[in-house]
Amino acid sequence: MPRIHCATPLASGQSLGLPPGAARHVQVLRLQPGDGITLFDGRGGEFEATVERMGRNDVDVRVGAHHTVEREAALAVHLAVGMPANDRMDWLVEKATELGVASIQPLQTAHGVLRLAGERAQKKQDHWQAVAVAACEQCGRNQVPAVHPVRDLGTWLDGLGADAPAARHVLGFGDEAQPLGRGAPAGGSALFLSGPEGGLNPQEEARARASGFVLTTLGPRILRAETAPLAALVHLLAVAG
């Protein structure tokens, strides 16, 4: 049964017109009145629903039973990433969502090729959030990970508050780097920071460590900027069970 994210809060028994994005999804699938779909609004669980009317640009549905099923990971892993160039950030957001990431923080760093500001940064954030929504529809998640606004690395580090995960890892290659997973929490949350192509520079790495990040290695191979955070995500989730 098709799964569709609905930004409008849902309740069993209501009839409603789907928001434009969800309506377009139903139309692309060529569904007809009487067809069943699964809706989720990101507030928890999912709903049975039935298409009631197909308009030219709008779709009405009847919301049915709510199911409390969730498919979230035992450990909430938050990724902070120096944005890779071209469409690699799209790929990272999609795959991280499928694997169970809790949130993604895109960062501007010294070695980053992708530079975003103002309206362009907002459009990119909106696009990446839509990529995360589509990945949730595909993989069965009912909780959509937040893709935060683009931030400068230093500003972001300065703004980390008490609510940020205590388990903090930054990808590095020095002799002091510890294997990822050593001291990783079995539950709760963790934060993993990695750079773009070329990695973080020494000053950025030192600033991260001063903010409570432990220098971490993923092994002897050098991974691409879009691969490293995914490898860390999988490893941390595996350790957490």
Key phrases:
alpha/beta; 27% strand; elongated; 2 domains; single chain; five-stranded mixed beta sheet; 241 residues; Alpha/beta knot; Ribosomal Protein L25, Chain P; eight-stranded parallel beta sheet; 29% helix
Question: What does this entry look like structurally?
Answer:
This protein has 241 residues and is α/β, with parallel strands linked by helices. The chain has 2 domains: 3-67, Beta Barrel (Ribosomal Protein L25, Chain P), CATH 2.40.240.20; 75-240, 3-Layer(aba) Sandwich (Alpha/beta knot). It is 29% helix and 27% strand. A hairpin with a 5-residue loop joins strand 3 (36-40) and strand 4 (46-54).
Layout: helices, strands, pairs:
Elements: E1 3-5, E2 15-17, H1 20-28, E3 36-40, E4 46-54, E5 59-67, E6 75-82, H2 88-99, E7 103-108, H3 118-139, E8 146-147, E9 151-152, H4 153-158, E10 167-171, E11 178-179, E12 188-194, H5 202-210, E13 214-217, H6 228-240
Parallel strand pairs: 1-3, 6-7, 6-12, 7-8, 7-9, 10-12, 10-13, 11-13
Antiparallel strand pairs: 2-5, 3-4, 4-5
Helix pairs in contact: 2-3, 2-6
Give a short summary of the structure.
The chain has helices spanning 20-28, 88-99, 118-139, 153-158, 202-210, 228-240, and strands spanning 3-5, 15-17, 36-40, 46-54, 59-67, 75-82, 103-108, 146-147, 151-152, 167-171, 178-179, 188-194, 214-217. It is α/β, with parallel strands linked by helices. The chain folds into 2 domains: 3-67, Ribosomal Protein L25, Chain P (Beta Barrel), CATH 2.40.240; 75-240, SPOUT methyltransferase, trefoil knot domain (Alpha/beta knot), CATH 3.40.1280.
